[in-house]
Amino acid sequence: MNNRKRLVVLGGGESGVGAAILGKDKGMEVFLSDFGQIPERYRQQLEAEGIEWEQGQHTLERILSADEVVKSPGIPPTAPVMKAIAEKGIPVISEIEMAGRFTDAKMVCITGSNGKTTTTLLTYHILREAGINVGLAGNVGRSLALQVARTPHDVYVIELSSFQLENMYEFKANIAVMLNITPDHLDRYDYKMDNYVKAKFRIIRNLTSEDAFIFWQDDPTIQRQLEQIATEARLFPFAEHEEHQSHAWVDDAGELVFDTSETSLKMPRAELSLNGLHNLYNSMAAGLSACLLDIKKEDIRRALSDFEGVEHRLEPAGTVDGVRYINDSKATNVNSCWYALESMPKGTVLILGGKDKGNDYSEIEPLVREKVKAIVCMGKNNSKLISYFGGIVDQIRDTHSLDEAMAACHEIARPGDTVLLSPCCASFDLFSSYEDRGRQFKQAVAEMK
């Protein structure tokens, strides 16, 4: 009789294949199923490991024989296969939850509607440059499960989306970071903000008095939620200027202050490698995490001043005929665009559009009125954008491809202007991903020179 645990993994991407390999290494009987097509490199990996897999279908008989299911974060709970699993009462967990069972490494976990990737990479950069044996996982980097299985580290820095947090139960962060919460992915959460907030706050599940919760002090949604729930964790709020109980802020002399029981330090804000208010908050969150891990002051200062930033996030794409082009393709929600506009000059030509996720554009309306001379809509259906912004900017263009959008920008922009791609929307109507959108934009700028 076979008493091995039967593990079914749904999704053949980075997280799914990593979970399958970890399951195999732990002696489980593993089957991986992907309703779509598994990328070639992952198929080769599964073959090399001798793990059974299927693509283009879900064989329910195999799936419903599982003792436990690891689900890709991209599969919604409303998918037919998930409904069938729920009816059978089979436990469903995330790859992060599974990986956490097999490591006692320290976990620095970062979430938020905006700034997650920058803060995650910056925190990883600080720890790596300080000589820590650190791994990068979650939404960026390699699968946490695969690293736990094959290349274990002492510390992991993990970017966690609300989707990944949904199926985490016993997993525990040592340092949990919440950058901000603004409306995003509401189509996944029945268009109820409260459901999205609760998903985000799963990051503080299981925190003890020895753990830390770092968060932006002036986020009203975070503050409201903290009034309704209890956590044993030590709290480390940060703010632009010192407030009651702040642990990171900028003082009147322009010095960035970090104040924790483990490490306290100051450095001139002007020395930060990342500019803009949003990046100040990202630097504060990363710096506080490093302080709590007792990283040397000089290592923190140096890493905060030489970090090179994130592709597709306020990334200079070049200057053509005196017009500056900025790639902010990673701005897939309205609040992310707000941060981009906050750092832009007047005379900005703004490219918006893509797959709308239930967006409320009122948040950026004041900045659009102040700084934007024209909006170029780039998507299959731009009617919502045109309806909202039509009377707000002097010029608005309806385009349905990158080529059309770039031609409109070239026609509108004058020397000294800035063209900002900060779409507020997902990319999937015209592009395969926000990375694809950003790279095509950069290529188009290069070809204009």
UniProtKB/TrEMBL annotation:
UniProt keyword terms in alphabetical order: ATP-binding, Cell cycle, Cell division, Cell shape, Cell wall biogenesis/degradation, Cytoplasm, Ligase, Nucleotide-binding, Peptidoglycan synthesis
Listed InterPro entries: Mur-like_cat_sf, Mur_ligase_C, Mur_ligase_C_dom_sf, Mur_ligase_cen, MurD
Example GO biological process: regulation of cell shape
Protein's UniProt keywords contain Transferase: no
Record has Cell cycle as a keyword: yes
GO MF term list: ATP binding; UDP-N-acetylmuramoylalanine-D-glutamate ligase activity
Any one GO CC term of the record: cytoplasm
Localization, UniProt: Cytoplasm
Binding site for ATP: G112, S113, N114, G115, K116, T117, T118
Classification via NCBIfam families: murD
Family the UniProt entry places it in: Belongs to the MurCDEF family.
Protein name, as recorded: UDP-N-acetylmuramoylalanine--D-glutamate ligase
Species of origin: Paramuribaculum intestinale
